[in-house]
Amino acid sequence: MYRANWIDGNLSCWSNYNQNWERENKNMIVELNPLNNFKSATLEFMNEINKSYGITQNPVTKNYMMVLDNKCKKCNKICNALHFHQNFGNWTSGKNDIDKFIQATQLSVHTNDVSDVLEWISYNRFYNIKCITKAEKYIANWIDGTINYWDNNGQNWIRENQNMIVNLKSLNDIALEFINEIKLDHKIYGITQDPETKNFMMVLNNKCKECNNVCNTIHFQQNFGNWTSGNNDIDKLIQDTQLSVHNDVSNALKWIPYDRFYDIKYIAKGGFGKVYRAIWIDGGEYQNMPVALKSLNNSKNITLKFMNEIMIHSKFDKFEDFIIKFYGMTQDPETEEYIMVLKYADNGSLRNYLDTNYNNLNWYDKIKYLLEIASGLDGIHEKEFIHQDLHSGNILMSILNMHIADMGLCKPADCKESENTKNTIYGVLSYVAPEIIRGQTYTKAADIYSFGVIMYELISGLPPYNDISHDNLLAIKICKGLRPRFNIKVPQLVVRLIKRCLDANPLNRPTTEETHEILKKWLNDLNNNQTELQRQIKEAEEENNNLLTENTPTNLGLSYKTHSEAIYTSRLLNFNNLPEPKNSYDYYEQNDDIISKEFSESLQIDISQLNIIKMENI
Fold it and tell me: What keywords would UniProt list here (predicted)?
């Protein structure tokens, strides 16, 4: 009896198109059974031919031979056990009991499921071998990957998961009980041997230590060797996020090659760098998705500030509905600057949106948008962080939601400022709380103050203090109690909440959680005409219909003038000798506006007198 590979394979069916027989199982293994006495073996021949593909003749011996299928004696089929058996002569561990153990697992698989089969794996099929514990356990990449199925045409095993990460654990006991114990915690792929130590090692799946499964973190880990940003800190940050997502991969950052973007267009320049719009071929949510590319100045030589914004953004993916989504990092090959890949807000900043759409907003829209901003800020505070630079230019409007952006100055709530930076702040003066202008440490309450200014802006449609210079004089006025005034009638409930947010005493300001709950209730109240809020809105709208000023909205949007020195981009602010923050003398005595007209006018007189005194002293 002989065994051979049959080049052509067996007949399958007749092809009318080719007018020839179609064949399958090319290079299949068959058995050749000599027919020593052809004339006297007619019955034997007839019995055997039912299991035969045909007859051949050895040209040297002239003997006829039956071409028989090479079937498994147990299942009477050409099964996986047979394919493994035919390869036994091509490998050995060098140890008889290990060979027999591996062969036993291979001879037990007669069906298509080969998941429990063990292999002998040459040690040179592993790379990046690193020791991970003192108990002789290693991590490595397996070049070939696992067996998937037998390919009849190629007459070989098809494999998957090439270059996968596996664990190598010293094999001290070949006993079945020991192997079964290992199987409780790991999947075993096979056995190998370190050629230097001569130690035999089991090849195990690389399970996640936290969830005890082969989860997304393992799949990400297996790809670490296929990319790099060129910067160890950025690599580590991206990898850390990928190693934290056991189920939801949407929160993992990615390194994205720059050539995966096209149609890159400049949008704007901010305090930290430039922003571009681009199309991301692969997309974070769908292919050819628009994204924002944010480069930070001098990021070629990576700075702590740049890394800070990256790290801060990565902490808030849970709140992506209301904090701008961060997809990953890329690098401009020409400038070598690193770039953040962020969700693209179709409608731009809140300020831009109000300039073009304010006249179309109703009270439901305004309260809904404020609730979304409050939700994002509440998410930041829930994580014990402070934004520090909240203003309408950092609120972005997508098709569905408002999103808080620019987390560059965001910091832990318990972070202590160094003495040399105590009196230096960065932001937009008209949104900065008075205690911060005076150099005190940023708190969550300071963010609430900024939110109060945004409430005023979204409801009025106007930038705060748009008609005056944003200079040292404005800083003094804010500390003395100046606040923006409405040019329209606003419900007293709304005014009262804004006043609480803008209170000179940080301890009197509401928390983001309380603010969120109030806005949420108001949104529900709009569905009921009998609520106090609805009554006040109706009263305010009746009065506003009769109110005409130069700032009144038109069909084309808002019409207002901005002072040439009114600055609404973040900048360094440094003021000295500012007065102690205080509220206006009648702050809580009236709720028709944030501050009374009388106080605003008296403050102008006080400041004018202050200027006269200064001039006399010169």
Answer: ATP-binding, Coiled coil, Kinase, Nucleotide-binding, Transferase
Question: Fold match between 96-207 and 351-609?
Answer: no
Residue 451 corresponds to which tokens in the numbers above? 């939110």
- Alpha-carbon span 556 to 269, nearest angstrom: 26
Listed in sequence order, the DSSP H helices in 184-231 are 216-222
Share of the chain above pLDDT 90, in %: 42
Measure Cα distances from 226 to 144, 158, 234 in Å.
16, 23, 15
Label residue 433 exposed, middle or buried (CB < 10 Å: 0-12, 13-18, 19+). buried
418 vs 119, more confident: 119
Superfamily of domain covering 351-609: Transferase(Phosphotransferase) domain 1 (1.10.510.10)
Q: If residue 449 lies in a helix (H) or strand (E), which one and from where to where?
A: helix 444-460
**pLDDT tens digits, residue range 330-366?**
999 998 889 999 999 988 899 999 999 999 999 999 9
In sequence order, what are the beta bridge partners of 11? 23
Q: Provide the residue type at 532 as one letter.
A: E
- Tokens representing 587 are 């702050």
Question: Phi, psi at residue 280, to the nearest 5°?
Answer: -95, 115
Instruction: Please tell me the predicted confidence (pLDDT) of residue 453.
Output: 98
CB-count exposure of residue 616 (10 Å: 0-12, 13-18, 19+): exposed
Report the candidate in 350, 378, 379 with the shortest Cα–Cα distance to residue 365: 350
> Taking the domains of the chain in order of start, what are their residue ranges?
2-77, 96-207, 351-609
CB within 8 Å of 365: residues ≥ 6 apart: none
Q: Which CATH class is domain 96-207?
A: alpha beta
